[in-house]
Structures are given as structure tokens and as C-alpha cells.
């Protein structure tokens, strides 16, 4: 199977309908990730075919959960996951990719240019020091930190009525128990990622 066939099959399983242009962008992102990964160490996964499920499709399971809001912050974006696939699938969203690593944000800026993503902004810096003019309706992370640290470091960036939408592996019982005072879990949703073994969960955290 080609990557396109794998992507199409995965999108159908997730329930996402994307245009041919969006699928072209997803394939383009995959190629850039594989190319830059050789020198920038963006991900431990080296094979493009494994990147389809572990990175593209895993990131895209976030998209059906992004109901409401127009501004999404991806904290510790790294190689652009889940922010870039989400931005491709939801061009109506303004997506900010935030990472403190200069090499990674250099890659992210190049990817945004090559993939023609006018809805994406890249910021180099630490999340606790980031002070944008406008706050975010949804704040996500995929491999940034445990829930408590994620919420503590980025809560100043959450708009009134906004949500943290964290992507996790196994059900994070202990992390949930450590959430800071004033925040609680609205939902923990199992995610099924085509081609990916192991548990995946999406955790919604809101201010009480």
C-alpha cells in the first residue's frame, strides 16, 4: 500500500473527510518529517510507514474532539504533532506551535512555508514565559509533560470557558489525581488509532 492508501484508510476509520489537497499536505508533511528527522532528531520513529499511524493518524484523532473555539495552542509541539495535522484538517483554526527547542521550531517554520499553512504560527520559547495578546480556546499537548505540569505551566494561556485537551497513552489515573486545585477532568475518552498498538486516551481538563 502507498502512504496515501494508508492515510485514506486511517481517515475513514477515524471518520474524517478531507480534500485531496489536504491529503497532499499530510503526505508532504510526512515527507518533510522523514527528511529532517535524519539530522534534527524530531522523532525516534525512522520509517515513514510507521509515522503514518504513530504520528499522522494519532494526531488526527484529536480533530473530531476540537469542538468549539477558533484558537488552538500545541504546547511542546516538537516535530509538529498534533498541531500540524490538526491545522491541515481544520484550516479554520488558528494554530500556534510552541516549543523551546530552536532546531525543532526551525523545522516547524520550514514545514509551515512548504505546506502553505497560513493558519499556523510558530513560537520559540518556554510556555510559562509566553504572553500572547489573545488566549486560547483549546490547549493541547502530546508528549510535553504530565497533566499537572502541563496545566500549571500553561493555565495563564487558557481563555475563559476553554479546555485543556491532552493526548495520553494508558488511562492516566495518577496524573489526574495530581491536577492542581481549581481544575478538574471533564472527560477521558479512549481513542482508536488505526495501525497503532497500545492504549490512547484524550483527557479534557477544565477550570472548576
From TrEMBL:
Top-level enzyme category: transferase
Cellular location(s): Cytoplasm
Annotated Pfam families: GidB
Catalytic activity, EC: 2.1.1.170
GO-annotated molecular function: methyltransferase activity
UniProt keyword annotation of Methyltransferase present: yes
Reactions that this protein is recorded to catalyse: guanosine(527) in 16S rRNA + S-adenosyl-L-methionine = N(7)-methylguanosine(527) in 16S rRNA + S-adenosyl-L-homocysteine
GO aspect biological process, one term: methylation
Keywords: Cytoplasm, Methyltransferase, rRNA processing, S-adenosyl-L-methionine, Transferase
Binding site for S-adenosyl-L-methionine: 76, 81, 127-128, 142
Family recorded in the similarity comment: Belongs to the methyltransferase superfamily. RNA methyltransferase RsmG family.
Xref: HAMAP family: 16SrRNA_methyltr_G
Function summary: Specifically methylates the N7 position of guanine in position 527 of 16S rRNA.
Protein name: Ribosomal RNA small subunit methyltransferase G
Amino acid at each position: 500500500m502507498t502512504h496515501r492508501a494508508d492515510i485514506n484508510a486511517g481517515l475513514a476509520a477515524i471518520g474524517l473527510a478531507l480534500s485531496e489537497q489536504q491529503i497532499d499536505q499530510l503526505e508532504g508533511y510526512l515527507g518533510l518529517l522523514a527528511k529532517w528527522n535524519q539530522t534534527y532528531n524530531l522523532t525516534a520513529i525512522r520509517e515513514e510507514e510507521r509515522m503514518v499511524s504513530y504520528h499522522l493518524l494519532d494526531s488526527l484523532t484529536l480533530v473530531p474532539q476540537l469542538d468549539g473555539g477558533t484558537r488552538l495552542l500545541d504546547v511542546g509541539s516538537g516535530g509538529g504533532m498534533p498541531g500540524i495535522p490538526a491545522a491541515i484538517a481544520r484550516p479554520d483554526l488558528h494554530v500556534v506551535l510552541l516549543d523551546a527547542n530552536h532546531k525543532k521550531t526551525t523545522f516547524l517554520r520550514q514545514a509551515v512555508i512548504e505546506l502553505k499553512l497560513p493558519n499556523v504560527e510558530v513560537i520559540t520559547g518556554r510556555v510559562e514565559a509566553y504572553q500572547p495578546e489573545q488566549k486560547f480556546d483549546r490547549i493541547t499537548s502530546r508528549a510535553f509533560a504530565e497533566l499537572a505540569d502541563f496545566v500549571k505551566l500553561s493555565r495563564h494561556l487558557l481563555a475563559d470557558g476553554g479546555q485543556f485537551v491532552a493526548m495520553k497513552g494508558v488511562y492516566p489515573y495518577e496524573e489526574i489525581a495530581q491536577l492542581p486545585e481549581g481544575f478538574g477532568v471533564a472527560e477521558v475518552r479512549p481513542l482508536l488509532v488505526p495501525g497503532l498498538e497500545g492504549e490512547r486516551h484524550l483527557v479534557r481538563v477544565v477550570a472548576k
